[in-house]
Amino acid sequence: MQLDFIKTIKYRDKEIRFYEIENVVYFCPADICAAADISLNGCQFNKAPAWSKIEVVNSTCSNDDFSEWFILNFKNYGDGKLIIFPSDFEW
Question: What count of other Cβ atoms lies within 10 Å of the Cβ of residue 77?
Answer without folding.
Answer: 15
